[in-house]
Description:
elongated, 5 strands, mainly alpha, 434 Repressor (Amino-terminal Domain), 5-stranded mixed β-sheet
Amino acid sequence: MIPKLIKTKRDHAQALVEIDRLMELEPLPGSPEANALELLAHLVEEFERTLFPPEMPSVADAILHRLDQLGLTRRDLGPFIGSRSKVSEVLAGKRPLSLRMIRALHTGLGISAETLLQEPGAELPAAEERDWRKFPLQEMVRRGYVRRIHQNLRDHAEDLVREFLAPFGGAFPPAASLRRTSHVRGGRASDDHALLVWATRAIQLAAESEPSIPYRPGSFTPAAIRGLTSLTRGKGGPSQVRDALGGFGIGFVVEPHFPRTYLDGALLLGRGSRPIVALSLRHDRIDSFWFTLFHELAHLALHEDALASFFDDLDSHDDRRVEREADALAAETLVPRAALVDSGLLERPDPAQVESFATGLGVHPAIVAGRIRHETGNFRVLSRMLGRGQVRSQFGIG
Protein backbone atom coordinates (compact mmCIF):
# COMPACT_ATOMS: atom_id res chain seq x y z
CA MET A 1 0.00 0.00 0.00
CA ILE A 2 1.38 3.40 -1.01
CA PRO A 3 0.79 5.92 1.80
CA LYS A 4 -1.73 8.60 0.82
CA LEU A 5 -3.46 11.48 2.56
CA ILE A 6 -6.10 10.33 5.02
CA LYS A 7 -9.35 12.18 4.33
CA THR A 8 -12.06 9.86 5.60
CA LYS A 9 -12.67 7.44 8.42
CA ARG A 10 -12.43 4.62 5.90
CA ASP A 11 -8.95 5.84 4.88
CA HIS A 12 -8.08 5.97 8.56
CA ALA A 13 -9.19 2.36 9.17
CA GLN A 14 -7.21 1.11 6.16
CA ALA A 15 -4.13 2.96 7.33
CA LEU A 16 -4.34 1.35 10.77
CA VAL A 17 -4.52 -2.12 9.17
CA GLU A 18 -1.47 -1.31 7.03
CA ILE A 19 0.44 -0.03 10.07
CA ASP A 20 -0.23 -3.30 11.90
CA ARG A 21 1.01 -5.26 8.86
CA LEU A 22 4.20 -3.25 8.53
CA MET A 23 4.95 -3.46 12.25
CA GLU A 24 4.72 -7.27 12.10
CA LEU A 25 7.47 -7.21 9.43
CA GLU A 26 9.81 -5.47 11.88
CA PRO A 27 11.42 -3.50 9.02
CA LEU A 28 15.03 -2.36 9.25
CA PRO A 29 15.57 1.40 9.77
CA GLY A 30 15.83 3.16 6.40
CA SER A 31 14.11 0.39 4.46
CA PRO A 32 11.13 1.23 2.20
CA GLU A 33 8.83 -0.52 4.66
CA ALA A 34 10.19 1.48 7.63
CA ASN A 35 9.81 4.73 5.72
CA ALA A 36 6.24 3.82 4.75
CA LEU A 37 5.46 2.97 8.40
CA GLU A 38 6.82 6.32 9.63
CA LEU A 39 4.85 8.26 7.02
CA LEU A 40 1.63 6.38 7.72
CA ALA A 41 1.97 6.95 11.46
CA HIS A 42 2.39 10.68 10.83
CA LEU A 43 -0.67 10.81 8.54
CA VAL A 44 -2.78 8.92 11.08
CA GLU A 45 -1.68 11.28 13.86
CA GLU A 46 -2.61 14.35 11.81
CA PHE A 47 -6.04 12.92 10.92
CA GLU A 48 -6.77 11.93 14.52
CA ARG A 49 -5.88 15.43 15.64
CA THR A 50 -8.71 16.77 13.50
CA LEU A 51 -11.12 14.15 14.81
CA PHE A 52 -10.10 14.38 18.45
CA PRO A 53 -8.43 17.78 19.08
CA PRO A 54 -6.46 17.93 22.33
CA GLU A 55 -8.54 19.26 25.20
CA MET A 56 -7.83 22.92 25.84
CA PRO A 57 -6.87 23.67 29.47
CA SER A 58 -9.14 25.99 31.40
CA VAL A 59 -8.04 29.59 31.86
CA ALA A 60 -7.36 28.97 35.55
CA ASP A 61 -5.30 25.83 34.87
CA ALA A 62 -3.30 27.62 32.19
CA ILE A 63 -2.53 30.54 34.50
CA LEU A 64 -1.54 28.30 37.42
CA HIS A 65 0.63 26.13 35.17
CA ARG A 66 2.42 29.20 33.84
CA LEU A 67 2.96 30.56 37.35
CA ASP A 68 4.54 27.25 38.31
CA GLN A 69 6.82 27.35 35.27
CA LEU A 70 7.97 30.88 36.12
CA GLY A 71 8.36 30.26 39.85
CA LEU A 72 5.66 32.83 40.69
CA THR A 73 2.71 32.73 43.09
CA ARG A 74 -0.90 33.89 42.95
CA ARG A 75 0.14 37.11 44.65
CA ASP A 76 2.14 37.97 41.53
CA LEU A 77 -1.04 38.12 39.43
CA GLY A 78 -2.04 41.51 40.82
CA PRO A 79 -0.50 43.62 38.04
CA PHE A 80 -2.14 41.37 35.42
CA ILE A 81 -5.62 40.82 36.90
CA GLY A 82 -6.13 43.35 39.69
CA SER A 83 -7.19 43.02 43.30
CA ARG A 84 -6.91 39.90 45.44
CA SER A 85 -10.65 39.26 45.10
CA LYS A 86 -10.49 39.51 41.31
CA VAL A 87 -7.58 37.05 41.20
CA SER A 88 -9.52 34.61 43.38
CA GLU A 89 -12.66 34.90 41.25
CA VAL A 90 -10.74 34.36 37.99
CA LEU A 91 -8.94 31.30 39.34
CA ALA A 92 -12.24 29.92 40.68
CA GLY A 93 -13.88 30.39 37.28
CA LYS A 94 -16.36 32.91 38.69
CA ARG A 95 -15.10 35.96 36.77
CA PRO A 96 -14.40 36.07 33.02
CA LEU A 97 -11.21 37.73 31.86
CA SER A 98 -11.55 41.25 30.52
CA LEU A 99 -9.71 42.15 27.33
CA ARG A 100 -7.27 44.18 29.41
CA MET A 101 -6.53 41.13 31.60
CA ILE A 102 -6.13 38.92 28.53
CA ARG A 103 -3.66 41.32 26.94
CA ALA A 104 -1.69 41.59 30.17
CA LEU A 105 -1.53 37.81 30.75
CA HIS A 106 -0.65 37.16 27.12
CA THR A 107 2.11 39.79 26.99
CA GLY A 108 3.38 39.54 30.55
CA LEU A 109 3.18 35.78 31.17
CA GLY A 110 3.24 34.43 27.62
CA ILE A 111 -0.04 32.49 27.83
CA SER A 112 -1.48 31.85 24.35
CA ALA A 113 -4.36 33.99 23.15
CA GLU A 114 -6.40 30.92 22.14
CA THR A 115 -6.16 29.53 25.67
CA LEU A 116 -7.11 32.81 27.31
CA LEU A 117 -9.98 33.30 24.84
CA GLN A 118 -10.88 29.57 25.02
CA GLU A 119 -11.14 29.38 21.26
CA PRO A 120 -8.79 27.30 19.05
CA GLY A 121 -6.81 29.48 16.66
CA ALA A 122 -8.12 32.70 18.19
CA GLU A 123 -5.99 35.83 18.05
CA LEU A 124 -6.17 39.01 20.08
CA PRO A 125 -7.73 41.98 18.33
CA ALA A 126 -5.33 44.72 17.39
CA ALA A 127 -4.04 46.52 20.46
CA GLU A 128 -4.33 50.23 21.01
CA GLU A 129 -1.45 51.93 19.32
CA ARG A 130 0.83 53.95 21.55
CA ASP A 131 2.01 57.26 20.19
CA TRP A 132 5.51 57.00 21.62
CA ARG A 133 6.32 60.61 20.82
CA LYS A 134 3.63 61.79 23.23
CA PHE A 135 5.65 60.58 26.20
CA PRO A 136 7.44 63.38 28.10
CA LEU A 137 10.89 62.36 26.89
CA GLN A 138 12.77 65.51 27.87
CA GLU A 139 11.54 65.30 31.46
CA MET A 140 12.28 61.55 31.59
CA VAL A 141 15.87 62.23 30.51
CA ARG A 142 16.21 65.12 32.96
CA ARG A 143 15.15 62.89 35.84
CA GLY A 144 17.37 60.03 34.75
CA TYR A 145 14.49 57.67 33.98
CA VAL A 146 15.97 56.85 30.57
CA ARG A 147 19.48 57.10 29.18
CA ARG A 148 20.61 60.35 27.66
CA ILE A 149 21.25 60.18 23.93
CA HIS A 150 22.72 62.74 21.55
CA GLN A 151 20.36 61.93 18.68
CA ASN A 152 16.86 63.36 18.25
CA LEU A 153 14.86 62.07 21.22
CA ARG A 154 11.60 61.85 19.29
CA ASP A 155 13.19 59.60 16.70
CA HIS A 156 14.14 57.13 19.44
CA ALA A 157 10.96 57.52 21.52
CA GLU A 158 9.71 53.95 21.19
CA ASP A 159 13.05 52.35 22.12
CA LEU A 160 13.51 54.61 25.16
CA VAL A 161 9.98 54.20 26.51
CA ARG A 162 9.91 50.43 25.91
CA GLU A 163 13.17 50.18 27.81
CA PHE A 164 11.66 52.18 30.67
CA LEU A 165 8.47 50.05 30.77
CA ALA A 166 10.30 46.73 30.29
CA PRO A 167 10.10 45.63 33.97
CA PHE A 168 6.32 45.45 33.59
CA GLY A 169 6.39 43.10 30.64
CA GLY A 170 3.82 45.24 28.89
CA ALA A 171 1.30 44.58 31.67
CA PHE A 172 0.92 48.19 32.71
CA PRO A 173 -2.04 49.77 30.87
CA PRO A 174 -1.37 51.81 27.74
CA ALA A 175 -1.58 55.53 28.38
CA ALA A 176 -4.66 55.85 26.19
CA SER A 177 -6.60 53.40 28.39
CA LEU A 178 -5.29 54.58 31.77
CA ARG A 179 -8.54 56.31 32.69
CA ARG A 180 -10.59 53.22 31.85
CA THR A 181 -8.50 50.84 33.98
CA SER A 182 -7.94 53.12 36.98
CA HIS A 183 -9.76 55.63 39.17
CA VAL A 184 -8.45 59.04 38.10
CA ARG A 185 -9.68 62.02 40.10
CA GLY A 186 -9.15 65.32 38.35
CA GLY A 187 -11.15 67.89 36.46
CA ARG A 188 -8.23 69.28 34.52
CA ALA A 189 -6.96 67.80 31.28
CA SER A 190 -3.93 65.98 32.63
CA ASP A 191 -1.37 64.31 30.38
CA ASP A 192 -2.08 60.59 30.66
CA HIS A 193 1.33 59.71 29.18
CA ALA A 194 3.05 61.72 31.91
CA LEU A 195 0.75 60.13 34.51
CA LEU A 196 1.74 56.66 33.29
CA VAL A 197 5.44 57.54 33.49
CA TRP A 198 5.10 58.92 37.01
CA ALA A 199 3.20 55.85 38.23
CA THR A 200 5.66 53.48 36.58
CA ARG A 201 8.59 55.21 38.25
CA ALA A 202 6.80 55.08 41.62
CA ILE A 203 6.31 51.32 41.29
CA GLN A 204 9.95 50.87 40.29
CA LEU A 205 11.10 52.80 43.38
CA ALA A 206 8.79 50.79 45.62
CA ALA A 207 10.27 47.54 44.29
CA GLU A 208 13.75 48.77 45.28
CA SER A 209 12.78 49.27 48.94
CA GLU A 210 10.01 46.80 49.67
CA PRO A 211 8.93 46.21 53.30
CA SER A 212 10.43 43.08 54.78
CA ILE A 213 7.01 41.64 55.60
CA PRO A 214 4.29 40.77 53.07
CA TYR A 215 1.02 42.66 52.94
CA ARG A 216 -1.88 40.67 54.40
CA PRO A 217 -5.05 41.49 52.39
CA GLY A 218 -7.79 42.99 54.51
CA SER A 219 -5.43 43.82 57.37
CA PHE A 220 -5.45 47.57 56.87
CA THR A 221 -8.61 49.05 58.36
CA PRO A 222 -9.93 52.51 59.33
CA ALA A 223 -8.72 51.75 62.85
CA ALA A 224 -5.21 51.25 61.48
CA ILE A 225 -5.40 54.70 59.87
CA ARG A 226 -6.44 56.24 63.18
CA GLY A 227 -3.42 54.61 64.79
CA LEU A 228 -1.16 56.65 62.50
CA THR A 229 -2.39 60.05 63.71
CA SER A 230 0.31 60.14 66.39
CA LEU A 231 2.88 60.56 63.61
CA THR A 232 1.33 63.89 62.66
CA ARG A 233 2.23 65.74 65.86
CA GLY A 234 5.79 66.79 65.10
CA LYS A 235 7.42 68.42 62.10
CA GLY A 236 9.44 65.26 61.38
CA GLY A 237 6.44 62.96 61.13
CA PRO A 238 6.51 62.60 57.32
CA SER A 239 9.97 61.02 57.44
CA GLN A 240 8.59 58.25 59.69
CA VAL A 241 5.77 57.21 57.38
CA ARG A 242 7.75 54.69 55.29
CA ASP A 243 8.68 52.61 58.35
CA ALA A 244 5.18 52.88 59.82
CA LEU A 245 3.48 51.65 56.66
CA GLY A 246 6.18 49.02 56.16
CA GLY A 247 4.93 47.45 59.40
CA PHE A 248 1.71 46.65 57.52
CA GLY A 249 3.55 45.47 54.42
CA ILE A 250 2.50 48.62 52.52
CA GLY A 251 5.00 50.32 50.24
CA PHE A 252 5.57 54.07 50.42
CA VAL A 253 7.41 56.28 47.94
CA VAL A 254 7.75 59.95 47.16
CA GLU A 255 8.25 60.86 43.51
CA PRO A 256 8.17 64.59 42.75
CA HIS A 257 5.23 66.00 40.86
CA PHE A 258 5.41 65.50 37.10
CA PRO A 259 4.44 68.44 34.85
CA ARG A 260 0.87 68.33 33.50
CA THR A 261 -0.29 65.55 35.84
CA TYR A 262 -1.91 67.72 38.54
CA LEU A 263 -1.33 64.80 40.86
CA ASP A 264 -1.11 64.84 44.65
CA GLY A 265 -0.94 61.13 45.34
CA ALA A 266 -1.88 57.65 44.22
CA LEU A 267 -2.61 54.19 45.53
CA LEU A 268 -0.95 51.65 43.23
CA LEU A 269 -0.52 47.88 43.00
CA GLY A 270 3.07 46.68 43.05
CA ARG A 271 4.77 43.33 42.85
CA GLY A 272 2.75 40.51 44.44
CA SER A 273 -0.28 42.84 44.67
CA ARG A 274 1.49 44.85 47.37
CA PRO A 275 -0.30 48.20 47.84
CA ILE A 276 1.89 51.26 47.36
CA VAL A 277 1.12 54.78 48.49
CA ALA A 278 2.92 57.25 46.25
CA LEU A 279 2.96 61.01 46.94
CA SER A 280 4.12 63.78 44.63
CA LEU A 281 4.47 66.57 47.24
CA ARG A 282 3.01 68.94 44.67
CA HIS A 283 2.13 71.23 47.58
CA ASP A 284 5.04 71.43 50.02
CA ARG A 285 2.87 71.82 53.11
CA ILE A 286 2.34 69.78 56.27
CA ASP A 287 -1.47 69.90 55.99
CA SER A 288 -1.43 68.74 52.35
CA PHE A 289 0.99 65.88 53.08
CA TRP A 290 -1.13 64.35 55.82
CA PHE A 291 -4.50 64.73 54.14
CA THR A 292 -3.19 63.23 50.88
CA LEU A 293 -1.57 60.32 52.73
CA PHE A 294 -4.70 59.58 54.73
CA HIS A 295 -6.88 59.88 51.61
CA GLU A 296 -4.86 57.20 49.78
CA LEU A 297 -4.84 54.98 52.87
CA ALA A 298 -8.62 55.43 53.11
CA HIS A 299 -8.93 54.03 49.58
CA LEU A 300 -6.99 50.96 50.73
CA ALA A 301 -9.03 50.51 53.91
CA LEU A 302 -12.41 51.04 52.22
CA HIS A 303 -11.96 49.98 48.60
CA GLU A 304 -9.39 47.20 48.57
CA ASP A 305 -11.64 44.74 46.74
CA ALA A 306 -12.17 47.27 43.96
CA LEU A 307 -8.50 48.22 43.85
CA ALA A 308 -6.96 48.79 40.48
CA SER A 309 -5.17 52.10 40.93
CA PHE A 310 -6.31 55.44 42.33
CA PHE A 311 -4.80 58.69 41.04
CA ASP A 312 -5.85 61.82 42.93
CA ASP A 313 -5.81 65.52 42.21
CA LEU A 314 -7.20 66.63 45.57
CA ASP A 315 -7.69 70.20 44.42
CA SER A 316 -10.43 68.82 42.18
CA HIS A 317 -13.93 68.03 43.39
CA ASP A 318 -15.10 64.50 42.63
CA ASP A 319 -18.59 63.34 43.56
CA ARG A 320 -18.01 59.63 42.98
CA ARG A 321 -18.78 57.48 46.01
CA VAL A 322 -15.26 56.12 46.43
CA GLU A 323 -13.83 59.65 46.51
CA ARG A 324 -16.46 60.97 48.91
CA GLU A 325 -15.80 58.07 51.26
CA ALA A 326 -12.02 58.52 51.13
CA ASP A 327 -12.32 62.27 51.71
CA ALA A 328 -14.64 61.75 54.66
CA LEU A 329 -12.53 59.09 56.37
CA ALA A 330 -9.32 61.10 55.95
CA ALA A 331 -10.86 64.34 57.20
CA GLU A 332 -12.70 62.81 60.15
CA THR A 333 -9.69 60.78 61.25
CA LEU A 334 -7.46 63.84 61.33
CA VAL A 335 -9.96 66.44 62.64
CA PRO A 336 -13.44 65.25 63.66
CA ARG A 337 -15.90 67.83 62.35
CA ALA A 338 -18.13 67.75 65.43
CA ALA A 339 -15.19 68.69 67.64
CA LEU A 340 -14.18 71.42 65.21
CA VAL A 341 -17.69 72.89 65.21
CA ASP A 342 -17.86 72.80 69.01
CA SER A 343 -14.51 74.58 69.24
CA GLY A 344 -15.88 77.71 67.59
CA LEU A 345 -12.80 77.93 65.38
CA LEU A 346 -14.87 77.96 62.18
CA GLU A 347 -16.28 81.35 63.26
CA ARG A 348 -13.17 82.67 65.05
CA PRO A 349 -10.01 81.06 63.61
CA ASP A 350 -7.56 82.37 66.18
CA PRO A 351 -4.00 80.98 65.74
CA ALA A 352 -3.40 80.48 69.48
CA GLN A 353 -6.67 78.59 69.85
CA VAL A 354 -5.84 76.51 66.77
CA GLU A 355 -2.58 75.51 68.47
CA SER A 356 -4.41 74.53 71.66
CA PHE A 357 -7.13 72.62 69.81
CA ALA A 358 -4.55 70.71 67.76
CA THR A 359 -2.64 69.76 70.90
CA GLY A 360 -5.83 68.37 72.37
CA LEU A 361 -6.47 66.28 69.24
CA GLY A 362 -2.86 65.11 69.09
CA VAL A 363 -2.24 66.41 65.56
CA HIS A 364 -0.04 69.07 63.97
CA PRO A 365 -1.64 72.58 64.01
CA ALA A 366 -1.18 72.79 60.23
CA ILE A 367 -3.76 70.02 59.80
CA VAL A 368 -6.37 71.95 61.81
CA ALA A 369 -5.56 75.17 59.95
CA GLY A 370 -5.95 73.43 56.60
CA ARG A 371 -9.29 71.91 57.64
CA ILE A 372 -10.62 75.31 58.76
CA ARG A 373 -9.63 76.91 55.45
CA HIS A 374 -11.32 74.10 53.54
CA GLU A 375 -14.52 74.13 55.61
CA THR A 376 -14.95 77.91 55.51
CA GLY A 377 -13.66 78.46 51.97
CA ASN A 378 -11.58 81.31 53.37
CA PHE A 379 -8.06 80.71 52.09
CA ARG A 380 -6.70 83.99 53.45
CA VAL A 381 -6.74 82.90 57.10
CA LEU A 382 -4.10 80.89 58.97
CA SER A 383 -1.83 80.74 55.92
CA ARG A 384 1.27 80.98 58.13
CA MET A 385 0.24 77.85 60.04
CA LEU A 386 0.22 75.39 57.10
CA GLY A 387 3.83 74.24 57.48
CA ARG A 388 4.95 75.48 54.08
CA GLY A 389 8.35 74.27 52.93
CA GLN A 390 8.62 71.66 55.69
CA VAL A 391 7.99 68.40 53.80
CA ARG A 392 10.09 68.03 50.66
CA SER A 393 13.32 68.61 52.56
CA GLN A 394 12.56 65.53 54.70
CA PHE A 395 12.80 63.43 51.54
CA GLY A 396 15.86 65.12 50.10
CA ILE A 397 13.86 67.05 47.52
CA GLY A 398 14.81 70.65 46.87
